[in-house]
Amino acid sequence: MKPHRGVIEEEDASTLKLGSEFQDAHCLFISEVKILLDASQRPNTSEVYQKTLNYVNQFNRFTNPEVVREVRAGMNEEPIHSILTPFELAQLANLCCEEAEEAKALIPSLANKIDDESLQNFLNQTLDLKKFQS
């Protein structure tokens, strides 16, 4: 909970209450963060940087930068783009769920927003990209 103008604002990712500072934020998925860190020209040996790098290396789902661009492009297609928030789309890319039911269990805000068939189609496209990366 965070105080906001005298009112306690409760944050809850399951209902997409992420706080006012994230209202219009662009969400990157882990593979995009890895690309940015790899492209960094400055050597950075801070503990936070190293922990972040270790994290993205461990949880990176898409190892080919072209595939990362394709996944992002798929997120910008309709109808998925107009139905889901950037946060939900980034979570789907990070988790790489195989089934719509699994995605809805892990991302509760999806439950009443998108039908299983549309979600499954998006998941299948993402999984196909993951399978064929080199």
Automatic annotation (TrEMBL):
Keywords for the protein's UniProt record, in alphabetical order? Nucleus
Q: Name one Pfam family in it.
A: RNA_pol_Rpb4
A GO MF label: nucleotide binding
Matching entries from SMART domains are given as: RPOL4c
An example of a Gene Ontology BP annotation on this entry?
Answer: DNA-templated transcription initiation
**Where does it live in the cell?**
Nucleus
Query: This protein's superkingdom?
Result: Eukaryota
Q: What is one term from the GO cellular component aspect held by the record?
A: nucleus
Residue intervals of the RNA polymerase Rpb4/RPC9 core domain? 20-133
- Family, as annotated: Belongs to the eukaryotic RPB4 RNA polymerase subunit family.
What is the name of this protein?
A: RNA polymerase B
**What organism does this protein naturally occur in?**
Lunasporangiospora selenospora
Source taxonomy = Eukaryota, Fungi, Fungi incertae sedis, Mucoromycota, Mortierellomycotina
Q: Gene symbol?
A: RPB4
